[in-house]
Specification:
Order of helices and strands: EEEHEE
Helix content: 10-25%
Strand order of the largest sheet: 3-2-1-4-5
Oligomer: single chain
Distance between the termini: 42 Å
Largest sheet: 5 strands, antiparallel
Number of helices: 1
Structural class: mainly beta
Radius of gyration: 16 Å
């Protein structure tokens, strides 16, 4: 394995760290489909954050949006969230907000209000970040 210059692996976490709840301004870097095609991944750069999350400013955050269930059915909630991004950036009722192309979102600045959502899966407690509100920054 090559040596990675400047890497302090002792400070790198392999655990996914949740963002603290609050309002964040983020720039959308890109979006892509997951390898299995069931999720759209929107990659953001955090531009502003609540006081308790200032260390995250400048870091990347990914929003995984489920667009297909395991059985291949369309996930209406996922499509609704994508539509909220499009409406926040291009305006409700605009032709761009009715597009199924997320590439035009790249470079746009949005404000996301993030909360933490807990649930049980296979008897195990899970907590994830959930985007509650999307508006134009």
């Amino acid at each position: 394995m090559p040596i990675i210059e400047g890497a302090d692996m002792a400070s790198v976490s392999t655990e996914r760290e949740l963002l603290p709840e609050g309002s964040y301004t983020m720039t959308i870097k890109e979006s892509e489909l997951s390898e299995d095609g069931r999720s759209l991944i929107i990659k953001h750069r955090i531009d502003t954050a609540p006081d308790e999350a200032q260390a995250r400013v400048g870091q990347e955050w990914w929003n995984w949006i489920n667009i297909k269930a395991n059985d291949g059915k369309v996930n209406e909630i996922g499509f609704s969230q994508i539509k909220k991004y499009l409406e926040a950036v291009f305006g409700k009722g605009s032709s761009e907000s009715n597009s199924n192309d997320t590439d035009p979102l790249n470079g746009a600045s949005v404000e996301l209000y993030i909360v933490q959502k807990s649930y049980k899966k296979d008897g195990e407690d899970k907590t994830v970040n959930n985007v509650k509100r999307i508006t134009k920054a």
